[in-house]
Amino acid sequence: MKTIRVLLVAVLGVVLIGCASVDPKPSAEARAALAPTGKLRVGVYLGNPLSVVRDKISQEMKGAGFELGQQLARRMDVPFEPVVYPSVGALLEGAKSNQWDVALFQVSPARAKDFDFTPAIVEVELGYLVPSGSRLTTTADADAAGMRIAVQEKSQSDAVLSRIAPRATLVRVPGLAAALEAVKAGKADAIGTTKPSLFELSSQLPGSRVLDGRFAQEHISMAIPKGRDAGVPYARKFVEEAKSRGLVRAAIEKSGARGAVVAPPQSAL
């Protein structure tokens, strides 16, 4: 009889643990705040594997922002709809007309006025991609008269380099594809952006290389447009669990992003 009771207790314990591990669904208020149209519209921008990249032949999309958006929609039990932009600047403009519900990008004081952010999801270095034979050989040499650095307009690289490389000339372009064309056309000496994007671009510029070192480091978080207060705690909890369960690491690996690591738990920040 005692053995039977022990077995029953053990089975009950397994059942309770299993129930506790099931992803909790959002409250009706949280679901309405995060997915007001009935589907989760995830903003992503092309060229950055931490957001989304699209295969030129199959048109298949992958990327950390894309993957985590799918995971969040699945957990919330709502349809997933990617909203694709050519650049982070275009994505930010899209938020002004309520085109998307969540997106992954860099936190900044200016952006915090328009968005609520989860804890950091990914940490990533910012650096330079240079063509073969470039006169820029080290990160420290970028701040020099006559040095032309292509950056995405309104990006974090634009903001940082405007401050730390005042002698260089910033060639502001609408997106990374345009930055690559500027280098190919001899209109820029380097591209300054996140290293995952630089490694992605390097495959399209034979003989190019990503310089060692960094000029800044970004913390990428999930952004939610202001006014969605009821959904923010749920998004923050999702992010922390996605990190602890290996979902973020898996998304980074699937995207092929290099130069990015999973951010530490919020308690360790």
Features:
single chain, D-Maltodextrin-Binding Protein, domain 2, 2 domains, two-stranded antiparallel ribbon, 9 helices, disordered N terminus
Helix-strand layout with pairing:
Blueprint: H1 2-21, H2 28-34, E1 40-45, E2 53-54, E3 61-62, H3 64-76, E4 80-85, H4 88-95, E5 102-106, E6 115-117, E7 122-130, E8 148-152, H5 156-164, E9 169-173, H6 176-184, E10 190-194, H7 195-202, E11 209-210, E12 216-225, H8 232-244, H9 247-255, E13 260-262
Would you write up a description of this structure?
The chain is an alpha/beta fold. It folds into 2 domains: 27-123 and 219-268, D-Maltodextrin-Binding Protein, domain 2 (3-Layer(aba) Sandwich), CATH 3.40.190; 124-216, D-Maltodextrin-Binding Protein, domain 2, CATH 3.40.190.10. The chain has 9 helices and 13 strands. Strands 1, 4, 5, 6, 7, 8, 9, 10, 11, 12 and 13 form an 11-stranded mixed beta sheet that branches. Strands 2-3 form a two-stranded antiparallel ribbon. A hairpin with a 6-residue loop joins strand 2 (53-54) and strand 3 (61-62).
In short:
With 269 residues, this protein is an alpha/beta fold. The chain has helices at 2-21, 28-34, 64-76, 88-95, 156-164, 176-184, 195-202, 232-244, 247-255, and strands at 40-45, 53-54, 61-62, 80-85, 102-106, 115-117, 122-130, 148-152, 169-173, 190-194, 209-210, 216-225, 260-262.
